Amino acid sequence: MMINKPLVLTYLYLLIYIVLSSGVILYNKWVLSPKYFNFPFPITLTMIHMGFSGAVAFFLVRVLKVVSPVKMTLEIYSTCVIPISAFFASSLWFGNTAYLHISVAFIQMLKALMPVATFLMAVICGTDKLRCDVFLNMLLVSVGVVISSYGEIHFNVIGTVYQVTGIFAEALRLVLTQVLLQKKGLTLNPITSLYYIAPCSFVFLFVPWYFLEKPQMEISQIQFNFWIFFSNALCALALNFSIFLVIGRTGAVTIRVAGVLKDWILIALSTVIFPESTITGLNIIGYAIALCGVVMYNYLKVKDVRAAQLSSESLPERIVKVNLINNC
User: Fold this and answer.
1) How far is the C-alpha of 185 from the C-alpha of 192, rounded, in Å?
2) Alpha carbon 11 to chain centroid, angstroms
3) What are 15-38's pLDDT values in tens digits?
4) Rounded to 10 degrees, what is the CA torsion of 54, 59, 60, 64?
């Protein structure tokens, strides 16, 4: 029996992505939670990630010269990199802060709102049109998340607001990346993305850190274990690279499907690792409804991408394809 090596490699990349993504989320929860490692400073943790990622990217670009930096002007940096970095920093800050207040399982259920947030931001920014079919999907997702939230035993308003705000910040970052970078004709791989965005995000995070966390860190007895934070930052960096590998190997749609699988695994794992995480029947029903909306939304996006690819082909190319099909 012949082994399909490219297929095996694709599944291996997907497995690495799911393991790393789940691992980073659970690791962050463990570090931040007062019940475990007890380092309740999410901005500091995010700054460690950004500082480490930026330093590694600088080493790869400037010292080892693995990739070449793109042609970056002051105008592109100020109009593209700075706003994207600001929303990237915000999404990480708010997302990590949510771990202090709500469970990993409930956070994953709230993340089903990501397509809703992305669609709304795309409509507002003019990159997408308000369509009835997509709107109904978004409505289904929203109803599912509301039902799931209603069934949450340890529902916390502050944690929910932080997580939802982080989701909308991430959605705006994704839309801005598409709008701003594509207009400038820039293509950034993970290394060059981190090279430009991570240091800028670090600077943005420094302001809230100075006013919100620095005073608390000075008066509280915090434990700083180098190996804990180093391994945590290393996992976050590896996750960024794994996302690029999966997208490069399969495409954005596949990573969305893998993301859904990862969410189910995370919800199950979090209840085992963190016993205080309790899942109710209403949680599962609500999340299942939201998931149906997400799957339908992904299906519509795949159809749109295929239609766009077909329309971009020239007429002679289409004729050749039709002839080939007829001859088969």
Assistant:
1) 15
2) 20
3) 888 899 999 999 999 999 988 898
4) 170
